[in-house]
What we know:
Elements: E1 9-12, H1 18-28, E2 34-37, H2 39-45, H3 47-56, E3 62-64, H4 72-80, E4 88-92, H5 97-106, E5 112-116, H6 124-129, H7 134-138, H8 140-153, E6 158-160, H9 166-173, E7 178-181, H10 202-208, E8 212-215, H11 217-220, H12 228-244
Parallel strand pairs: 1-2, 1-8, 2-3, 3-4, 4-5, 5-6, 6-7, 7-8
Helix pairs in contact: 4-5, 8-9, 10-12
The chain binds cytidine-5'-monophosphate (C5P).
Cytidine-5'-monophosphate binds near residues 119, 120 and 217.
Amino acid sequence: MTFQPKDRLIFALDVPDKRQALDLVQLLEGEVGLFKLGLELYLAEGPGLLKELVNIIDPERIFLDLKLYDIPATVLGPIRSILHGLALFTLPSDLGPAALKSIVSNTAAAFRVLAVTVLTSTTGDDLKALGYERRYWENPARLVVDRAVMAKEAGCAGVVCSGREVKAVKEACGPDFLAVCPGIRPEWAAVPGDDQKRIVTPYEAIKNGADYIVVGRPIRTYPESQGGPVAAARRVVAEVAAASEP
Length: 246
Ligand code: C5P
């Protein structure tokens, strides 16, 4: 199968219920590569929704973004009951090397694990307030890269990082280590009251080396008067295609 520009687009299904989620899957099925299920939807609908989704789309197109943070035994409990064969699953890198290694080695057959480096809503000021060393809060990219190297050593398939840090992550971890980038804001789509901070456009993220970009609100809330989510997804894919050209 050839890798098309749309395959690099992960749509964040950040909606409160199954009905809205299934409507969006139906609408965008031919426009995006993967669908990302996050906490909001998973807590509301539970594993039953995953079973329904795999009746409509290939499990290899599902990214379960739960960022479970607990001791390995407690994280492994709920993971065991999750459907196998999903594309991607997230763990916070703050779990540390030993816990990441243990969880990754116990779930190797089920899905590829991505470590979340530093949330794209986190700023240097946040890191300072959390007690991180000066070199990290002065430049959060340093923390992202150190965590990416740790995640690679722990056996993770890749990381979630911002499009601003992806180049440095690839340099440190190699081209095959996956970089999945949220915090994507096209110039043509405003998100009111935005919480994302370390943002880049779809074009910039792909040019910098992102394997996948995660886009939620810029697609979901794109005005119907301008073509709604389908038009927005196509505009994002056009940027991905332009950035993929040599
Ligand atoms: O709506 P928006 O495009 O900001 O959605 C981004 C998605 O990526 C959200 O589902 C968010 O949980 C997720 N995410 C993120 N930053 C991370 C990891 C995941 O924004 N570091």
